[in-house]
Queue: 2 jobs
Job 1
Amino acid sequence: MAALLISLILLAYFGGTAAYLAYVFVQREGFARVGAGCLAAGWLVHTGELMRRFVSLGQLPMSTPGEALFFFSWTLTAVFLLLTWRFPIRILGVLVAPLSALMAAALWLLPSRPGGVSPLLAGFWLHLHVLLSLAGTAALTLAGLGGLLYLLQERQLKQKKFGFFYRRLPSLTQLDRLNHWCLTLGFPLLTLGIITGSLYAQMALGRFFNWDPKEILTLIAWLIYTVLLHERLTVGWRGRRAAWLALGGLSIMVLAFAGASLWFTGYHSFGSFRMP
Amino acid sequence: MNLVLVGVNHKTAPVELREKLCGLFPDPQTAYQRLKAAPELSEVLYYNTCNRVEVLAVAPDPEAGIRRLTEFLASHPEVDPPELEKALYVHQGEAAVRHLFRVAASLDAMVVGEPQILGQVKAAYRQATEQNATGPILNRLLHKTFSVAKKVRTETGIGDHAVSISYAAVSLGKKIFGELGGKTALLIGAGEMAELALEHLRRQGVDRIIIANRTLERAARLAERFRGRAVPLEGLEEELLACDILISSTGAEGYVLRREQVAAAMRRRRQRPLFLIDIAVPRDLDPRINELEYVYLYNIDDLKEVVESNVQRRQQAASQAEGLVAAETLKFLDWLKTLGVFPTIIALQEKARAICRQELKKTLGHLGPLTPEQVEALEVLTRSVAAKLLHDPIMFLKRNHHSRHAAAEITLVRRLFNLDPDENHLRKPALAESD
């Protein structure tokens, strides 16, 4: 059952990737609609599979890097679907669809960890912390990807060299608005994620902040986003700088995740779950 | 029923001749009165776009129709018939349909992909319908034409590539700002180029226009025409704060704007993007302005480069579009062929109705008094008998419109049901003899 559902999810996400690729090359709206449709269908199955796992585990399936990516793929797709509905920046799909597909595939590609689960990973507050952080990260990931598109388009306009992407990318204003939207959605969510996390840490460990590598890196990323949001609202920063900062924040978030799963050890790392 | 098309365009006729033909009938009413009066033409559409004058008509007899249309074009007193003869092209049937599709999709234009032509054909069609000059065939053809043109535009992207300087500027502006509606344009210099650019920007929805010029008087005149505001050249730096798009085309020797001026303005603008277009030679705007963040400066050569690379892309799109037009032409011709069976079907139904009416009248005459219900029952009976009888011949006609013997089959049905009594009268004596 699980294998079938996961196959379906992967089929839908990779199908969506193919449709978005076709959209980029052929430039027909229809393909983008098919792509969004595939993602939406895959997302529904994805929701079902996550709920199934939640019920059978009694907690969110978040204890291996594979599971975490599988879960993050779900939030990323959700935020992207919300975004395409609000802003028709369809070309973003060509980045999001394969990303979601690969991250969902990580459930199979990365080794799963047998055995028990840390008692630290249960409880309402922890679930809230995970959900909020991931949703915020998903929105901020889209801001980063949008920043990439912005820098690409800006470069072409500035250097007056119009390549393959010039026609296919939306206007600078639209891409900048995307950055703004994602930031105003993602930043509060991430902030709440951090707050609930530290409240939970206080309850469980007696300390708000534990100098865990993931905590430190996330805090740095959060500071970057704070600066970006502040400057956007007060000085009117936009465009290139906003795009670079969004990309910077994103790379630190990636480092925080990869670090927590591969190099560092801390109580956020997968598999260790030692009490600090 | 045959479609015929007669006209001249920029490839066949010099501009003098085209001008004369354009002015042939200044008001559509007279033109259509003349055309509708012609018995050879059952439906007609007359249009002139930037570079062409064409008349499209439905004519039962194509040869006579073409003669009439040629006469119509030659009726201008200043047009020299032999000269017109040389410039004129004539298309019939399939060729006429394809030609119209190509014109509307802007494949036959001087600048392939130019978007204005479709609008002009649409306007001409509106005029023709107002004058009741079109009928079922042209109505269907023109609606098809508009959808083909739209399909070509969306599927081949033929109009995506700007091929004129001012259009290139507008499309760049759209890549920076998204929509141009609500933006402010500042013009430096009030020459002809500025005027052209203004028209383009206006059409794109730019609503605030500021014109700065050395002589305020000229600026004021232009400002009045475009409902803008005229300012002296000295106040330029203040105006930089309000505008989004700046077009400079003065004849000044040195730079009108230097990097430092724009840099100062950008700080005060809170880095809102600024799109600068310098179409003056020698240049008005310091090229170092482009180094500033959020400022996009294009000079005339940059724009020309955009245009040239787009011309090539358009040619590729055009060959793709030709395939589309060919396919749609065939589809329309198929429909046109089915049209042939409808008069016969209508005639069959008419005949059945007439017989029913007649026989009912006779029968009701001898039946004596009946209740209204009974009369109605009889009417229904006769009608349904007739309908059941006609069902098969009608299906036979409808199904066979693709066959190669379509014409022969229609003739057979018409003879079988005696739908053209005049012709059969002629044959009657012969039949009587053989009895």
Job 2
Amino acid sequence: MQEKLNEIRQSVRAKLDAAAGSASIEDIRVSVLGRKGELTALLKGMGKLSPEERPIVGQKVNALRAEIEGWLERKSAELAEKEKEQRLAAETLDISIPGEAVAMGNEHPLSATLEKIISIFTGMGFSVAEGPEVELDKYNFELLNLPKNHPARDAQDTFYFNENILLRTHTSPVQARTMLSQKPPIRIICPGRVYRADEVDATHSPVFSQCEGLVIDEGITMGDLKGTLDTFARELYGEGISTRFRPSFFPFTEPSAEVDVTCAACKGKGCRICKGTGWIEILGAGMVNPNVLEMCGIDPTKYTGFAFGIGIERVTNLKYNVPDMRLLFENDLRFLSQFGKGRV
Amino acid sequence: MLVPLSWLKKYVKIDIPVDEFVRRMIMSGTAVEGYEDCGAEIKNVVVGRLTEIVPHPNSDHLSICQVDVGQEAPIQIVTGANNMAVGDYVPVALHDSYLPGGVHIKKGKLRGEPSNGMMCSGEELGVPADVYPSNTDHGLLILKGEQIPGADIKPVLGLDDVIIDFDILANRPDCLSVLGLAHEAAVAAGNPVVEPNYEYATHGGSIDDEVRVRVDDPDLCKRYCAAVIRDIKIEPSPLWMRQALHKAGVRPINNIVDITNYVMIEMGQPMHAFNLDAVRGRQIIVRRAKKDEEMMTLDSKDRKLTPNMLVIADAEGATGLAGIMGGEESEITESTQVVMFESACFDGANIRQSGRSLGMRTEAQGHFERGVNVRLCKRALQRALALVDELGAGKVVDGIIDIYPNEEPVPVVQADVKYVQTLMGIDVPAEKMAKILEQLDIKTIVKGDQLICESPVWRQDIKVGADIAEEVLRIYGYDHIPSTLMKGKTMGGHNSAHQLRDAKLRALLCGMGAFEAITYSFISPKWYDALRLCEGDPLRLSAKLLNPLGEDYSVMRTTLIPSMLDTLSTNINRGNAGAALFEIGKQFLPKSLPLEELPEERPALCIGLYGENATFYTIKGMVEALLTRFGVRNVSWKRSDAPYLHPGRSAEVYAGDQLLGLLGEVHPDVAENFKFKRRAYVAELNLNALDACETGVGDAKDMPKFPAVQRDFAFVMKEEVPVGDVMRIMEKSAGALCEEVKLFDIYRGVPIAKGEKSVAMSIALRAADHTLGEEEITRVTDKIIAAVSTEFCAQLRS
């Protein structure tokens, strides 16, 4: 009996060593452990043994069965692994072939800049306010301390529909409308398209966009304006950027300032872009003129506030070094698609 | 405003380098565009004295000159000029010298004779004939008076100067004058202002015997001052005055006219000089023009006047446009003998209107528009008379006429110290503020917590406490403003619904491969023709600009489609193979025309595309995807009759009854009108309507517990049967069990008869609470087949 078992053991071992595919493993399994298999036959023949022999032989047969099952399992796993490796090797692709094109568009650079600016200011507690682009003279000029025939109107060449209706020259009328309809504290930004009768050239466009801001509350100072704009500049251009205020004049603010930011290209060292000064002028700002507050129904002895106006085209052109304003409005795909190639 | 530094230095000592001076001016509130050293290009050019002139032996037009240039011996120079004589002083460019324009002069030989430099004309040194009346175009510049041979030529010609281009802010008309700027420069340089001379001698007589002045419209003429000068001697003004005017950008003319211009630049007061003999009746009347009154201005142009224009009239009619330009009749000429100087304060807004309606723009007008100081009219007149005296241009008659009915006091402003400190964000002590204000000649008294401030006579802009804050701050230094964060209530900032919607649209469309475009809001009305819109089409009702940049930008668009077609055209014609573009913008829809109230501004989305694989269904798919993402329900499509779209390939899209927009293939004629020849597709959606139809996602549903079954059908039907309708009937027939109906193929050709198509669709059926049995499924599919067959005369393909 022992001999028989040894014989089966050796023959299975030999067959397994020679086996080359998972199919032949199954054949081996059937020939030994199947219903008509050699080991099964041995078990079936156990009835002929004496009761004393039976458990001993049974044990031996079962031990061999377990051993063979282990072999089969290992061998089939080994073969499956081998077959998988072969398949993977056969599936090798030319990875240098370009991937399938996925159609991807992108935002206009002006939208991208504006969205960035909006997110910076909403993060500081400003809310977005909007208003019409075709505006009344009253909101665009008069309530902002620019009465009819005021010479400062010259600085903003205006498109008119008639004496009282015009295309807004800035988004400040939204500030006026907000002050008239809302009680302080006010903290808004007003993004949108604005219009000035400038001939089209490399640095001018009759249609452009702005984002203005307005804060009115008790005890608002010019320091708060500087703090707000410093934060904005850092968020937009990165750490190490600050602002510089220069005295200026706007009819709706007093005191007023032109605001420069550290040139992001050279970090203030001076380069071609900032003409060696280390600073780039990007916006105008100031403390809301008490006359404006009064005209808009806000008590100037109780409240102070600041306002600022950012030119989106200017920020965009400086950020991406756009050489000619006209490119922004031609919408040539070869220009537009550049802004889909990286973080904007 | 161009100001020669030398002129500024007449009133204030500036002993710091120019760049530092300019920096201090900018940081204290006087903007500077730039500055230029006028003699920067000239090097090694000196005064020479001609000691000998002999003809050139080998030339009939050259001369050989010996010139004393301050060296041991005269140097020899060959010249082609012939306007010089022995003893004349001329500019000499020595060996290795430079002239304007980078011209390099070296010694050499001219027809065999050595020449050690060049004698220069005015032109070669950039000195115009206006400044040197003796200077002819081609001859040498003969210097007047005694000169020192060998001396640097630049101081002699006034070229050792720097011209600063100041950018004067609208609130500081006082700085539109050298004297006004001198007050700012005084603070920047830390030195006091020395006023010019206002004293002059008079020569008897009485002005009242010379001229009578009447102001009929004091609302437009706050003050009128006049003086008369007899025995006028018209001649060129002195060199210093001509040089100063030239450098400030004004052409010297003669002594009287130059004095008026000089005073305007010096003090900011426009002056006018009348030839009093040409003033009829020797009477000046300041009044509004009469209806249809006409006059000829100094520029020899006939001007038709309207009754809202202010004129200076004599006994018979208008002889000058107040504050804008004098009349030709009373112009100063060589033979003028009696002159009246006018120094007045006219209403800026009125001058501005008159100038605009006459299409005129003069220096004087600019001053009046920005605000001439009524308190300084008389002083400016006195200054002009002092100059007449100094130049010996005539004899001043006793007396000044000064019509000033409502004298304006110097404004006094009271400012709360704490308020000023709050505005600045810096707690500058009151005493320190007072000190700063005194530097600006603003007399200040500190009274408790108040500052009482009296402006100097030349300032007109200090009216409220905020102005005081600015004055203090600009001198204290904007650099000292701290960077603080707002205190008070914190506020939750939020974006607007519009911005969020637009951002969502952008993200979706970019994900579909479209690029965002931005175009102008005003368009050419010709584009409406190009769209084939009929005469009465409501899209043609657009608001028209009074002063557009040109017809191409003259009306506010009522649709974004033409701008998109133009953008597509640009891309097609520049060879871009395909493009998907979109724009989010406004349609401007007037409620009435001409505009009486603000138009409706309706936000719209426009999509445009072309390219190899672009079809009607591409753009429809994009729109459908957007509608799905916005949760728009009950979407239906109808054929569109928009004239700019292909009649068979265009559709309107509705949500229930609400029209959302339209889309389709561009009509070939319209494509041609926009200068392209390929098929292109556009869509335009009303975003207000989209907002109105937007719905939320709703409650999340549990995952289905029972399997779905899918059944495929192919129906043969007439070509004209709309597949969408078939799909809807299938959906309806399946009722609650219908999960999704999908189209997967439309087949035409053998064995399908001509004029028919085979449409293959699949339907997914599922019940929420059990697995569908075969019997149940068959019941539904039979119902579908029956409905489609009867409704559309379709046959199920086996």
